[in-house]
Design brief:
Elements lengths: L7 E8 L3 H11 L3 E5 L4 E7 L3 H5 L4 E6 L2 E4 L7 E2 L9 H7 L9 E6 L6 H4 L5 E6 L13 H10 L16 E6 L6 E3 H14 L5 E6 L1 E2 L10 H11 L3 E5 L20 E11 L5 E3 L17 E4 L3 E4 L7 E4 L2 H18 L5 H10 L9 H4 L13
Parallel strand pairs: 7-9, 7-11, 8-9, 11-13, 13-14, 14-16
Antiparallel strand pairs: 1-3, 1-4, 2-3, 5-10, 5-12, 6-18, 14-15, 17-18
Helix pairs in contact: 5-8, 6-7
Length: 383
């Protein structure tokens, strides 16, 4: 669990009481606090390795977890520029709704590599309504990787530049929290700090949905996993948490954390271009499969996740194609935003129930590949 180099070890410390009870003790005896995380009653800090045993036995310490590295979840190493016509995952919604302002007024938080001010997000009006940079403390939105911008476009791109490529909720607002670096990596405590910021500021921006196109391999015990603790707490605070299943398929028991949580909406990737001889849609081979280590059926559902056209984070007028469960999750996040816009009184549990109950079963896939099936855009006709 801990490093062997004799230097500082990043950890997340959970208090048996409140973080106020352990804050001064940590600062005085062990190290500088990185983040205070009252929503899960924890503190992140770097501790000298030789002091970990003493700290673990402290009467006010409930548990100590490694502050591990978290990564984005695309299958493509690099985004590809658009050179040919790509299927637009939002076409079905456009046909159903026409000019209806999908997702208007609803805030979707994107915890990722940042979000660039692409024209499809800031014109004719700026819908990146808030930006929090946990890594560099910059105030103007940016994305030095491109992953977060691509994700945000799948949710809320309005097609301003192309008049063609739109997200599933093109009138929703984006709240961008940069917690992953230019390589798409961050720490669990960075993600937890982003969730804490959302809980502190969510009402101000009407945040209803949190998109996590990232993850980490689950290590037992389940109840000590920091991302699962954080995601569960966010749901209990009233947010729908949508997370990528991971790209570790096709083997079973490969769902990433926090997608193993029973409270979140875990999304696998369907390959709409991959049909068998009977014309049946299949789950992408890379999409992680369940069950979880505790026997839960995951993912909850699948959505388009192969060759998805969205915003190019390096070009404010450009588009790019990427694949992965990172791309499937924001398709669902946008649909969740539409549900909240239509029925603001819904709870996260109700939104999840609607999404999974209305999903379309894929005949050739088992439940550990597809969950309840393919996202059904036509569910809105029944609401």
């Amino acid at each position: 669990m801990y490093s062997n180099n004799g230097e500082m070890t990043p950890v997340i410390i959970y208090s048996k009481t409140t973080i106020n009870e352990i804050r001064d003790c940590i600062i005085e005896n062990y190290g500088q606090i990185k983040y205070e995380l009252p929503f899960i009653n924890a503190i992140s800090v770097e501790i000298p390795k030789e002091k970990l045993a003493t700290l673990s036995s402290h009467r006010m310490i409930g548990a100590i977890s490694e502050d591990a590295i978290v990564s984005k979840a695309p299958i493509d190493a690099c985004a590809r520029p658009v050179r040919a016509k790509c299927g637009n995952y939002a076409d079905d919604m456009e046909r159903i709704f026409g000019s209806v302002e999908r997702g208007k007024g609803v805030g979707v938080a994107v915890i990722d590599t940042g979000v660039s001010p692409h024209y499809d997000l800031v014109k004719p009006q700026n819908r990146i309504v808030a930006f929090k940079d946990l890594l560099g403390n910059r105030e103007i939105p940016y994305d030095d990787d491109g992953h977060g911008t691509h994700v945000a476009g799948i949710i809320a791109g309005n097609g301003y530049t192309s008049c063609k490529y739109t997200g599933t909720a093109p009138c929703a607002n984006i709240i961008a929290i940069k917690a992953l670096d230019e390589s798409g990596n961050g720490t669990e405590s960075d993600i937890l700090a982003a969730l804490q910021w959302i809980i502190n500021n969510g009402r101000r921006y009407n945040i209803r949905v949190i998109n996590l196109s990232l993850g980490i391999k689950v290590e037992p015990p389940y109840d000590e996993d920091p991302l699962i603790k954080g995601a569960n707490a966010a749901v209990r605070h009233g947010y729908s948490v949508v997370t990528a299943a991971g790209n570790n398929g096709p083997g079973k028991c490969t769902i990433n954390s926090p997608g193993t949580s029973p409270l979140v909406i875990t999304v696998g990737a369907a390959d709409l271009s991959r049909c068998d001889v009977d014309g049946e849609i299949r789950v992408a081979s890379f999409s992680s499969r369940g069950p979880t280590l505790t026997g839960e059926t995951k993912p909850d559902l699948v959505a388009p996740g192969v060759d998805i056209c969205s915003l190019d984070g390096k070009n404010p007028k450009g588009y790019a194609v990427q694949s992965g469960t990172s791309m499937a999750a924001p398709v669902v996040s946008g649909v969740a935003a539409c549900l909240y816009a239509m029925r603001p009184g819904l709870t996260p549990a109700q939104v999840k129930q609607i999404l999974v109950q209305e999903a379309i079963p894929l005949k050739k896939e088992d439940r550990y590949a597809q969950g309840r099936g393919l996202l059904n855009y036509k569910m809105f006709l029944n609401l």
